[in-house]
Structure formats: structure tokens, C-alpha cells
Amino acid sequence: AKSSTEVKPNDEVVIKFGNKTLTILVKELLDTTKKDDAERMYEITSEDYERDFRKE
């Protein structure tokens, strides 16, 4: 999704940065929130690496 794309609960979002691809499931949207509430807003469903440098 682009930064301007609207998301809603149960949407799956794929974020690619560098060597890593992160897939998250949107669980809940809140108008205002605190850092501690972030966990209830999404769930990481997969975390993949093109090349895992941690194993080298």
C-alpha cells in the first residue's frame, strides 16, 4: 500500500524495505493512540529476508 492508501481492519499490508519484506494484518484503527496501544492495532503475519545476513 502507498502511504496515501486507506486501510481498514482485516486488510493485509506488505511493507518492503531494503532486504526485508514484512506482512502485517490490520486489526484495529484508532483515531488517537499511545505507543502502548500499537500492539492491538496490527499483527505481524510474516517477516522475510531476501538474504539473511544474520546467518552469515
Provide an overview of this structure:
The protein has 56 residues and is mostly beta strands. It has one domain (12-51). Helix content is 0%, strand content 38%. The chain has no helices and three strands. A three-stranded antiparallel beta sheet has the order 1-2-3, with no helix packed on it. The N and C termini lie far apart (32 Å).
List keywords for this structure.
38% strand; 3 strands; three-stranded antiparallel sheet; elongated; 56 residues; mainly beta
Largest sheet composition: 3 strands, antiparallel
Helix and strand composition category: mainly beta
Uncertain runs are: none
- The neighbouring-strand order within the major sheet is 1-2-3
The ordered H/E elements are: EEE
Radius of gyration, CA atoms, in whole angstroms: 13 Å
Tell me the count of domains: 1
Number of contiguous helices:
0
Envelope shape? elongated
Distance between the termini: 32 Å
Mean of the pLDDT scores? Answer: 87
Number of strands: 3
Helix content: under 10%
Portion of residues in beta strands equals 35-45%
List the helices and strands and how they pair.
Blueprint: E1 12-17, E2 20-26, E3 42-49
Antiparallel strand pairs: 1-2, 2-3
Short account of what is shown:
The protein is mainly β. It has strands spanning about 10-15, 20-25, 40-50.
